[in-house]
Specification:
Number of helices: 17
Strand order of the largest sheet: 5-4-3-6-7
Helix content: 40-55%
Length: 512
């Protein structure tokens, strides 16, 4: 074998070894995603182990096997006493049952009560159907029996001849979009209660509710069109297209205003057209002459870059959580190196936690980030630039992909350092996506493509209720009862935020 053939074999072995390493990392990442812990949190002990595993081994070897009670260090921290909520809430209706001995019941006059022992239990009474009859009497004048009879008109309703009340429709919507129960399970549940309702009927009632509350959805939509800072993300949802023979994939696009409302929008594709639709009428006119810059916080998906390329009034902003996640997934490849990177990102989040707990304004947030967070960013950038030059880090490896992603996003990641209004990551909108994924695990897919936007409307309503601490069923029942008798111009008063404001009398901040 000559030198050239030998070198070719060595090169082929090196190429195959690199390919095996990349494939092993992909398998490990997939296994961790399916079977591992989803949380990315690392405590201080884990980080110390990643940064200096040798010192951890030495410390464990030097420690005695049984230090004994004399080695225990007393803790001087004050014990935090948490107020424990009662096992049985006090606001529940009380039913008192007297369990007197038989001797007392036979001759109560012969005994004197000297005390009692009370044992409380929690009982559940299943929901029940009620048959309601709207009886309208017909009347004629006694002195003119041939005249037109008098009868009271029917009260405004969602649909003529619909047997479901707003309360029942609200129950169906709540079961589907809050409790994630498919219609066929609701059909079985109602049948056990003695009422047979076909699942198509339940679906039609949910669509009926959507037709009415779409006017409230548009009010929330206008709020997002006017917002100067939004977080946007998308998630795939399967749907059934008649005649296709298999499930198709559509997307729920989610727009989130931190501390405000959330908006869901359905589209059958993942292109930039959905972003245009999320901006709606706010794109009309000469938007480039508008001095107000709109910030979009998103991940590194290329559709955002392509959409914003020719729009000077749009500033794209990155997400530190995505960067942290990519380095976390590659932590096994170089534990000490990635442990240091994760620690620096942890320092950034610690600063944000302190700012959030102090409830400071945008100006102070910006000043604190400039003084404390910017130096950490510089250290991270210097290390990642050096890592990008290492030939030993394969571009297709998990660490190589994390480095490439971070460098491509770096300018967008630094936007939050000079703007105290914005957040460090995109977690607010990702938290809004989670209920849709939990629902998809239960009902598997949305019906037809046209049902996608109907689901987006209902998700928008129930998720905004959840953020405000409103019971979605109570809200829907009240709104569906009032809407048929209201003007379209009055719909703005029925958004979840305004509905709660009218009831409580004070403004509230939404929880992400």
């Amino acid at each position: 074998m000559d030198a050239d053939e030998r070198q070719k074999l060595l090169d082929e072995i090196a190429r195959q070894a690199a390919e095996i390493l990349v494939l092993r990392q992909a398998i490990d990442a997939l296994t961790r995603r399916i079977f591992g812990v989803s949380s990315e949190k690392l405590d201080a002990a884990q980080l110390e182990l990643m940064l200096d595993p040798d010192s951890a081994k030495k410390a464990s070897a030097a420690a005695p096997a049984d230090p004994g009670p004399a080695a225990e260090i007393p803790s001087h921290k004050k014990a935090v006493t948490k107020t424990r909520a009662p096992r049985i809430p006090d606001h529940l209706p009380l039913v008192r049952e007297e369990l007197d001995p038989p001797e007392v019941r036979l001759n109560p006059e012969a005994f004197r009560r000297i005390g009692e022992e009370v044992r409380e239990q929690l009982h559940f009474k299943p929901a029940e159907f009620i048959r309601i009859q709207l009886v309208r009497g017909k009347y004629v004048r006694k002195d003119d029996p041939c005249a037109k009879p008098f009868i009271n008109p029917l009260p405004p309703s969602l649909q003529d001849r619909c047997i479901a009340t707003p309360g029942l429709i609200a129950e169906v919507v709540d079961n589907r979009f809050v409790c994630h129960l498919p219609y066929y399970r609701q059909q079985e549940m109602f049948a056990r209660m003695g009422v047979n309702l076909h699942r198509k009927t339940l679906c039609d009632w949910a669509l009926l509710a959507t037709d009415w509350i779409s006017i409230i959805y548009r009010e929330i939509q206008y709020e997002h069109w006017r917002a100067l800072y939004r977080q946007i993300d998308e998630t795939p949802i399967d749907y059934l297209e008649p005649g296709s023979g298999k499930a198709q994939t559509g997307y729920l696009w989610v727009s989130n205003i931190p501390g405000g409302s959330v908006l869901y929008h359905w589209r059958d594709g993942r292109d930039g057209g959905a972003i245009t639709e999320l901006f709606g009428d706010s794109l009309s006119g000469d938007v480039n002459a508008d001095p107000l810059v709109r910030i979009i916080q998103c991940d590194g998906y290329s559709a955002y870059t392509a959409w914003a390329k020719d729009k000077s009034w749009v500033k794209l902003m990155g997400c530190h959580a995505h960067v942290r996640r990519k380095f976390f997934e590659a932590s096994k490849q170089s534990p000490r190196l990635i442990g240091w990177i994760l620690r620096q990102i942890g320092h950034l989040y610690h600063i944000e936690t302190q700012l959030r707990e102090a409830k400071v304004g945008p100006a102070l947030r910006e000043a604190t980030r400039a003084a404390q967070s910017r130096p950490i960013h510089r250290r991270l950038k210097k290390l990642i630039d050096l890592l990008a030059l290492r030939r030993s880090i394969l571009p297709k490896s998990l660490l190589g992909k994390a480095i490439s992603y971070t460098l491509n996003q770096w300018q967008r990641l630094e936007v939050y350092l000079s703007d105290g209004r914005v957040e460090i990551d995109n977690n607010g909108v990702e938290n809004s996506i989670r209920p849709t994924k939990l629902g998809a695990r239960n009902w598997m897919f949305i019906g037809a493509e046209s049902a996608g936007q109907k689901s987006a409307i209902l998700y928008t309503i129930v998720e905004n209720c959840r953020r405000l601490g409103i019971n979605p069923k109570e809200y829907l029942e009240d709104v569906l009862t009032r809407l048929p008798a209201m003007k379209a111009s009055e719909a703005a008063s029925l958004t979840p935020a305004n509905w709660l404001l009218a009831r409580s009398g004070k403004s509230v901040r939404m929880a992400a």
